[in-house]
Amino acid sequence: MRRGPRRAFPALSLALSLLLTALSGCSAAPAQTATIFAMDTVMELTAYGERRCVDEAVSAVYEAEDRFSVTDPDSDVARLNASGGGAVSGDTQALLERALELCALTDGALDITVYPLVRAWGFTTGQYRVPGGGELAGLLEKTGYDRVRLEDGTVSLPEGSLLDLGAVAKGWTADCIAGIWREAGVKSGLINLGGNVMTVGAKPDGSDWTVGIRDPFSQELMGAVRVRDAAVVTSGGYQRYFEEDGVRYCHIIDPKTGRPADSGLASVTVTGAEGVLCDGLSTAVYVLGLEGAKALWRENGGFELVLVTEERKVYITEGLEGVFTPEGSYQSTEIKVIRRG
Amino acid sequence: MAKTRTWVILIVVILLLSGAASVFLYAPRSPAGGVARIYVDGELVRSVDLSALSGEERFTVETEGGVNVILAEAGRIRVESADCPDQVCVRRGWLSSSPAPIVCLPHRLVIRLDGGGAAVDTEVG
Amino acid sequence: MELRRLTKDGVLTAVALAIFTVELQLPELAPVPGVKPGLANIVTLVTAFTLGPWDALAVLIARIVLGGLIAGNPAAILYSLCGGLAAYLVTVLMRRLVTEKQIWVASVFAAIGHNAGQIAAALAVTGTPSLLYYLPVLAVSGVITGAFTGFAGQFAVRRLGKALRK
């Protein structure tokens, strides 16, 4: 039996209409990108969708900077620091609440009140110096996230305490942008806020995003993780440090000692769905060290870790098996897997 | 209709040719390509086709913040010297296949490599 | 007769979707995107060789669009369509050149066409010429997976051909 084109008309019209439906979606949306300088770093935004999605994201970054900058005297954070507290609202209140939760979760390894110590070491200005023991002891008296009160939208800081949301602000901002994009129907987007990565959906071709992790000992990559709808954040002492008398002092301050963290870890990468969690925990885990990291990961969910020790050993948590691949010289390194049991 | 043997021979030839091409293409590439684009404050100020370079190309980029001296070679590019305070851009070294740009924050200068065959979409750390 | 035809196309689409869904669960074979067995192509092949090109086109497009929705990844529909239509065109062309015992040959060329179509789509969307580097690898994988699905399709045509053509 011959089946000519005439008979096939219903089938063909169905096929064509389905084709048009598929093409009219934003599957073939072009990449919209923006590069902006904010929060003391360079940020890159890529969304496969409408232009306004990127424009709104850029506004969100500047808005976050206006609220959370510790150096801009008009920011919410600077205002609280200047007057020892006050009313907060909206994003500032929400981020403060989340940050204090993370401080408690990490038992103070993350502490949003270490700013006076960071300043004493010169990391805020670049005028690096090694403070004396007495000076550090005095400053440690003034730090402690547990002495920050946040009730009914009102913050009160103890005398001499200063807030700094720098360890969580970028992760929070990445969450905000991801939220804006998802609401706008963006199926594919990449946010890199100066090494603080957030992926929205999968790549336009439907595959996972590949996020490379810098080797703390060289300019090469040590590995990569394949993710979708997830944040990837790395903290490491190699990112910013100064040397004096042959000793290296890194920019991540251990809130317990007031001195640069020296936990045996060279870099910590945290990945998970929530940017602010990954951002805050990357700092905290760097301070905690390998054993502290294992304990924190076993007691909590929502994130996975890639740890590189000063001896160039690599540890990953079991959720990253098959997700993390080593690169370069690390391909011959044994990757140890941290398990729940 | 062609004999099955004819089809098999044709398919084997295709298999051999594309197999050889795959091995060739995936072998370590020596002069990596890519176009380096140099941005100041988000504006494209210069692009250099690294795959077309045979020798060295040295040039300076002046920004409001100061001057960066940039050195480009076949397949790679770096900031050779700069009068910025932190020297992060100089210490970054060569950029040859990474999607992570060289950044000089004080001068708001970014050097990015496009089409360099990077294995990852972005970088952290 | 239209009803009979609609039913056959519907059943074939359902089979294709089932195969497609199962294939989604399989782990990736290689780190190169696009290297996968393409088992659902068996149905396109069988349809083209038993019911003819128009039915094959309808089944193919219905499978791709519904499959994209099932996979929760409508963005991938475009790629599947470009690949699927390229494979389809090759199949229809080859149908005139091969015997019933050489269906697998048609499948090999269709699989190569499928991969070329996907690369063309990726080229158009991303504007990244370096994607062409993938072409030889995908040709190799096309030959292997195409032969496999082709023999499966040939077997199905031999066993089911009579029933389907009724």
Describe, in short, the structure shown.
The complex is a heterotrimer of chains A (341), B (125) and C (166). Chain A has 341 residues and is α+β, with helices and mostly antiparallel strands.
Low-pLDDT runs of chain A? 1-28
Number of strands of chain B: 8
Shape of chain B: elongated
Assembly type: heterotrimer
Could you tell me the CATH topology label of the domain at 208-341 in chain A.
T-fold
Order of helices and strands of chain A: HEEHHEHHHEEHEEEEEEEEHEEEE
CATH homologous superfamily designation of the largest domain in chain B: N-utilization substance G protein NusG, insert domain
Return the CATH architecture of the domain at 208-341 in chain A.
Roll
CATH class label of the largest domain in chain B: Mainly Beta
**Order of helices and strands of chain B, N to C?**
HEEEEEHEEE
Description:
- The complex is a heterotrimer of chains A (341), B (125) and C (166).
- With 341 residues, chain A is of the alpha+beta class.
- Helices cover 34% and strands 26% of the residues of chain A.
- Chain A has a domain at 208-341: ApbE-like domains (T-fold).
- Chain A has helices at 9-24, 51-68, 76-83, 90-105, 115-120, 133-141, 166-183, 275-299; strands at 31-38, 41-48, 85-87, 149-151, 154-156, 188-193, 196-201, 209-214, 221-227, 231-236, 241-244, 247-250, 265-272, 304-309, 314-317, 324-326, 335-338.
- In chain A, a hairpin with a 2-residue loop joins strand 6 (188-193) and strand 7.
- The longest helix of chain A is centred in the C-terminal third of the chain and has 25 residues, at 275-299.
- Chain A starts with 8 loop residues before the first helix and ends with a strand.
- By secondary structure, chain B is α+β, with helices and mostly antiparallel strands.
- Chain B has two domains: 1-30; 35-114, mini-chromosome maintenance (MCM) complex, domain 2 (Sandwich).
- Helices cover 22% and strands 36% of the residues of chain B.
- Chain B is built from two helices and eight strands.
- The longest helix of chain B has 23 residues, at 4-26.
- The radius of gyration of chain B is 21 Å and the shape is elongated.
- The model of chain B has no long low-confidence stretch (mean pLDDT 82).
- With 166 residues, chain C is an all-alpha fold.
- In chain C, helix 1 packs across helix 3, helix 2 (41-50) runs parallel beside helix 4 (75-95) and helix 2 crosses helix 6 (134-165).
- Chain C is globular.
- The interface between A and B is medium-sized, with 34 and 23 residues.
